[in-house]
Amino acid sequence: MKLHWSPKSPFVRKVMVVAHELGCVEALQLQRSVAAMLKPNPAIMADNPLSKIPTLVLDDGQVLFDSAVICEYLDARFHGALFPSGDARWKALQQLALGDGLLDVLILWRNERERALPLQSLIDAFALKTEASLARLEREIEARPGATIDIGQIAIGCALGYLDYRFDEFAWRARAPKLAAWYATLAQRPSFVATEPADG
User: Do 135 and 79 form a contact (C-beta atoms < 8 A)?
Assistant: First the structure.
């Protein structure tokens, strides 16, 4: 299986955390791909018309995107339990949606602040949504991750890791100390250590 991949993308990181948790990293052929908002990449578009990563090309030629779909596919194919059943499933999927939504906000925020003339009202809106997301997680997150992990925890962990990587000045831990303690434990998992975002 070919995975359009980048060491900087938090959505790619989510897929790679899942792959490490499932022990299937060796099944993935990583193809370094750059997906810039203003420069659609023809190599990615040959597989994904949206020019977004991650994109997974299966051995039979079928193409899967976005990250949530790829994660669920890997979990099913390699007999994982990252997408639980019953009531636990809805909690995991809600956390998945919140983690992914927060990442969407952060990526748009980063793109806006790098414009020559960023729009302050957009910057303020992104900051407000980030603060509200952190406040909700601070209220709802468990004291510490358990021995098992699910897709919702992975998504939230990747969003917090992206805050560290691109928004260090935001100092999110001061706003959410309970969440910070939770993340400190999660970040020690081998799957998160192995997928730390990196430049170069």
Answer: no
Q: 139 in helix, strand or coil?
A: helix
Give the number of other Cβ atoms within 10 Å of residue 179's Cβ.
21
Pair of tokens at residue 178: 């309970």
Tell me the whole-structure pTM to 2 decimals.
Answer: 0.95
Mean pLDDT computed over every residue of the chain: 94
Distance CA 47, CA 4 (A): 9
- 106 touches 166 (CB < 8 A): yes
Q: 14-47: per-residue pLDDT in tens? A: 999 999 999 999 999 999 999 988 899 999 999 9
Percentages of the chain per state (helix, strand, coil), in multiples of 5: 60, 10, 35
Contact between 96 and 41 (Cβ < 8 Å): no
Amino acid 165 reads Y
pLDDT tens digits for range 112-158: 999 999 999 999 999 999 999 999 999 998 766 666 899 999 999 99
Please tell me whether residue 107 adopts helix, strand or coil conformation.
helix
Residue 125 and residue 105: Cα distance in Å, rounded? 9
Single-letter amino acid code for the residue at 134: L
